[in-house]
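Record type: monomer structure entry
Structure origin: computed from sequence
Chain ID: A
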Amino acid sequence: MITSRMQVNNMICPRARRYFLALIFLSFASLELACANHEKLNCFLGDRYLKGKYPPYCRCINLPMIYAECSLQFIEGDTIPPQISERVVLIRGDEMRRVNGPNDLKGCANIETPEEAIEYLRFFSSENTAHLFEDEKKEIFAPKGHRGCILVCTTNRSWNNLHLHDPVVTPKNDGFEITRFIIKPFPKAYLPTIYKEIVLVRKDGGVDLISEEKITDDPKYTERVGFAGFI
Protein backbone atom coordinates (compact mmCIF):
# COMPACT_ATOMS: atom_id res chain seq x y z
CA MET A 1 0.00 0.00 0.00
CA ILE A 2 1.34 3.43 -0.94
CA THR A 3 1.11 6.05 1.77
CA SER A 4 1.01 9.66 0.70
CA ARG A 5 3.16 12.37 2.30
CA MET A 6 0.01 13.99 3.68
CA GLN A 7 -1.02 10.74 5.35
CA VAL A 8 2.42 10.37 6.91
CA ASN A 9 2.30 13.95 8.19
CA ASN A 10 -1.15 13.38 9.61
CA MET A 11 0.18 10.38 11.55
CA ILE A 12 3.37 12.05 12.76
CA CYS A 13 2.06 15.50 13.69
CA PRO A 14 -0.45 14.34 16.35
CA ARG A 15 2.28 12.22 17.94
CA ALA A 16 4.68 15.15 17.85
CA ARG A 17 2.08 17.44 19.38
CA ARG A 18 1.33 14.94 22.15
CA TYR A 19 5.06 14.57 22.83
CA PHE A 20 5.54 18.35 22.90
CA LEU A 21 2.58 18.85 25.25
CA ALA A 22 3.88 16.06 27.50
CA LEU A 23 7.26 17.80 27.75
CA ILE A 24 5.57 21.08 28.71
CA PHE A 25 3.47 19.31 31.36
CA LEU A 26 6.52 17.54 32.80
CA SER A 27 8.52 20.76 32.94
CA PHE A 28 5.79 22.52 34.91
CA ALA A 29 5.20 19.46 37.10
CA SER A 30 8.93 19.32 37.88
CA LEU A 31 8.91 23.02 38.72
CA GLU A 32 5.92 22.69 41.03
CA LEU A 33 7.51 19.65 42.71
CA ALA A 34 10.74 21.58 43.21
CA CYS A 35 8.74 24.47 44.68
CA ALA A 36 6.94 22.10 47.01
CA ASN A 37 10.14 20.35 48.08
CA HIS A 38 12.06 23.64 48.31
CA GLU A 39 14.95 22.23 46.31
CA LYS A 40 17.88 24.51 45.63
CA LEU A 41 17.21 26.11 42.25
CA ASN A 42 19.13 28.77 40.40
CA CYS A 43 16.50 31.42 40.96
CA PHE A 44 17.81 34.06 43.31
CA LEU A 45 16.96 37.77 43.26
CA GLY A 46 19.45 40.68 42.96
CA ASP A 47 22.95 39.65 41.84
CA ARG A 48 21.81 36.36 43.37
CA TYR A 49 18.12 36.73 42.65
CA LEU A 50 15.87 36.65 39.57
CA LYS A 51 18.48 36.40 36.81
CA GLY A 52 18.08 34.60 33.48
CA LYS A 53 15.00 33.10 31.85
CA TYR A 54 12.58 30.90 33.76
CA PRO A 55 9.22 29.25 33.06
CA PRO A 56 6.35 31.71 33.60
CA TYR A 57 3.99 32.11 36.55
CA CYS A 58 5.99 30.25 39.21
CA ARG A 59 9.62 30.71 40.16
CA CYS A 60 10.92 29.16 43.34
CA ILE A 61 12.96 31.37 45.62
CA ASN A 62 15.70 29.66 47.58
CA LEU A 63 16.80 31.28 50.82
CA PRO A 64 18.92 28.79 52.79
CA MET A 65 17.66 30.05 56.15
CA ILE A 66 13.96 29.46 55.34
CA TYR A 67 12.36 26.27 56.63
CA ALA A 68 11.33 23.72 53.99
CA GLU A 69 7.66 23.89 54.96
CA CYS A 70 7.62 27.62 54.10
CA SER A 71 7.69 27.67 50.30
CA LEU A 72 8.34 31.03 48.64
CA GLN A 73 7.24 31.61 45.06
CA PHE A 74 7.66 34.51 42.68
CA ILE A 75 4.49 35.31 40.74
CA GLU A 76 4.94 37.10 37.43
CA GLY A 77 2.98 40.26 36.75
CA ASP A 78 0.18 40.45 34.22
CA THR A 79 0.46 44.20 33.68
CA ILE A 80 2.57 46.44 31.43
CA PRO A 81 5.23 46.74 32.69
CA PRO A 82 4.94 43.44 34.60
CA GLN A 83 6.86 44.78 37.62
CA ILE A 84 3.76 46.70 38.72
CA SER A 85 1.94 43.51 39.69
CA GLU A 86 4.81 41.10 40.40
CA ARG A 87 4.78 39.65 43.89
CA VAL A 88 6.19 37.03 46.23
CA VAL A 89 3.83 34.64 48.00
CA LEU A 90 4.34 32.38 50.99
CA ILE A 91 2.83 28.89 50.84
CA ARG A 92 2.65 27.17 54.21
CA GLY A 93 0.42 24.14 54.43
CA ASP A 94 -2.97 25.12 53.00
CA GLU A 95 -2.28 28.84 53.42
CA MET A 96 -1.04 31.10 50.63
CA ARG A 97 -0.54 34.83 51.15
CA ARG A 98 1.44 37.70 49.75
CA VAL A 99 4.74 38.63 51.38
CA ASN A 100 4.84 42.40 51.96
CA GLY A 101 8.01 42.45 54.05
CA PRO A 102 10.32 40.42 56.31
CA ASN A 103 7.87 40.23 59.20
CA ASP A 104 5.52 38.20 57.00
CA LEU A 105 8.16 35.44 57.19
CA LYS A 106 8.49 35.54 60.97
CA GLY A 107 8.58 31.97 62.24
CA CYS A 108 9.67 30.62 58.86
CA ALA A 109 13.39 31.30 59.27
CA ASN A 110 16.34 30.04 61.26
CA ILE A 111 19.02 32.73 60.97
CA GLU A 112 22.20 31.60 62.67
CA THR A 113 25.09 33.61 61.17
CA PRO A 114 25.87 37.24 60.27
CA GLU A 115 26.09 36.20 56.61
CA GLU A 116 22.59 34.73 56.70
CA ALA A 117 21.25 37.84 58.45
CA ILE A 118 22.54 40.27 55.80
CA GLU A 119 21.49 37.98 52.94
CA TYR A 120 17.99 37.70 54.40
CA LEU A 121 17.74 41.49 54.72
CA ARG A 122 19.04 42.04 51.19
CA PHE A 123 16.36 39.74 49.78
CA PHE A 124 13.89 42.53 50.56
CA SER A 125 16.05 45.41 49.36
CA SER A 126 18.05 44.42 46.29
CA GLU A 127 17.93 46.08 42.87
CA ASN A 128 15.56 43.43 41.51
CA THR A 129 13.36 42.92 44.58
CA ALA A 130 12.64 46.34 46.11
CA HIS A 131 9.48 46.80 44.05
CA LEU A 132 8.01 43.51 45.30
CA PHE A 133 7.52 44.72 48.87
CA GLU A 134 5.50 47.36 50.69
CA ASP A 135 8.39 49.41 52.05
CA GLU A 136 10.46 50.11 48.93
CA LYS A 137 14.11 50.49 49.86
CA LYS A 138 17.45 49.47 48.39
CA GLU A 139 20.82 49.02 50.01
CA ILE A 140 23.52 51.14 48.38
CA PHE A 141 27.14 50.24 47.80
CA ALA A 142 30.55 51.72 47.10
CA PRO A 143 31.44 52.35 43.43
CA LYS A 144 32.34 49.07 41.76
CA GLY A 145 32.35 49.99 38.07
CA HIS A 146 30.34 47.08 36.68
CA ARG A 147 26.91 46.78 35.08
CA GLY A 148 25.27 45.26 38.14
CA CYS A 149 25.98 48.47 40.02
CA ILE A 150 23.46 50.56 38.07
CA LEU A 151 21.14 52.47 40.44
CA VAL A 152 22.65 51.01 43.63
CA CYS A 153 26.30 52.16 43.62
CA THR A 154 27.21 55.69 44.65
CA THR A 155 29.93 57.92 43.28
CA ASN A 156 33.30 58.08 45.04
CA ARG A 157 32.44 61.62 46.14
CA SER A 158 29.21 60.50 47.79
CA TRP A 159 30.76 57.45 49.42
CA ASN A 160 33.66 59.41 50.89
CA ASN A 161 32.07 62.79 51.67
CA LEU A 162 29.03 61.27 53.34
CA HIS A 163 31.21 58.79 55.29
CA LEU A 164 29.22 55.81 54.01
CA HIS A 165 30.48 52.31 54.74
CA ASP A 166 29.70 48.65 54.23
CA PRO A 167 27.10 47.05 56.52
CA VAL A 168 28.12 46.39 60.11
CA VAL A 169 26.61 43.24 61.64
CA THR A 170 26.68 42.83 65.44
CA PRO A 171 25.48 39.55 67.02
CA LYS A 172 22.87 39.96 69.77
CA ASN A 173 21.17 37.47 72.09
CA ASP A 174 18.03 37.33 69.96
CA GLY A 175 19.50 37.98 66.51
CA PHE A 176 21.80 40.35 64.64
CA GLU A 177 21.91 44.15 64.69
CA ILE A 178 22.70 45.51 61.21
CA THR A 179 23.72 49.05 60.37
CA ARG A 180 23.65 49.92 56.67
CA PHE A 181 22.82 52.68 54.19
CA ILE A 182 19.72 52.55 52.05
CA ILE A 183 17.75 54.72 49.64
CA LYS A 184 14.00 55.29 49.45
CA PRO A 185 12.11 56.73 46.45
CA PHE A 186 11.38 60.10 48.05
CA PRO A 187 10.72 62.78 46.92
CA LYS A 188 10.80 60.93 43.56
CA ALA A 189 12.03 57.59 42.21
CA TYR A 190 14.89 59.32 40.37
CA LEU A 191 15.55 61.73 43.27
CA PRO A 192 15.90 59.34 46.23
CA THR A 193 16.86 60.04 49.81
CA ILE A 194 19.77 58.30 51.54
CA TYR A 195 19.17 56.96 55.06
CA LYS A 196 21.26 55.27 57.70
CA GLU A 197 19.23 52.32 58.91
CA ILE A 198 19.77 50.20 62.02
CA VAL A 199 17.63 47.07 62.37
CA LEU A 200 17.52 43.94 64.47
CA VAL A 201 17.17 40.80 62.35
CA ARG A 202 15.73 38.20 64.68
CA LYS A 203 16.64 34.54 64.38
CA ASP A 204 13.05 33.62 63.45
CA GLY A 205 12.95 36.08 60.51
CA GLY A 206 11.28 39.02 62.19
CA VAL A 207 12.91 42.43 61.64
CA ASP A 208 12.64 45.35 64.08
CA LEU A 209 13.57 48.90 63.05
CA ILE A 210 15.81 50.43 65.71
CA SER A 211 16.50 53.77 64.02
CA GLU A 212 16.41 55.48 60.65
CA GLU A 213 18.40 58.66 60.12
CA LYS A 214 18.10 60.82 57.03
CA ILE A 215 21.53 61.48 55.51
CA THR A 216 20.71 63.58 52.44
CA ASP A 217 18.43 64.09 49.46
CA ASP A 218 20.87 66.44 47.72
CA PRO A 219 20.97 65.39 44.02
CA LYS A 220 24.73 65.94 43.86
CA TYR A 221 25.12 62.97 46.24
CA THR A 222 22.31 60.82 44.85
CA GLU A 223 22.98 61.25 41.11
CA ARG A 224 23.97 57.62 40.52
CA VAL A 225 21.36 55.88 42.63
CA GLY A 226 17.61 55.60 42.31
CA PHE A 227 14.62 53.47 41.42
CA ALA A 228 13.16 52.27 38.15
CA GLY A 229 10.25 54.31 36.83
CA PHE A 230 7.56 51.71 37.54
CA ILE A 231 7.76 52.29 41.32
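Annotation 1: The chain has four helices and nine strands.
Annotation 2: The beta strands are 59-60, 71-75, 87-92, 95-98, 138-139, 168-172, 175-188, 191-202, 207-216.
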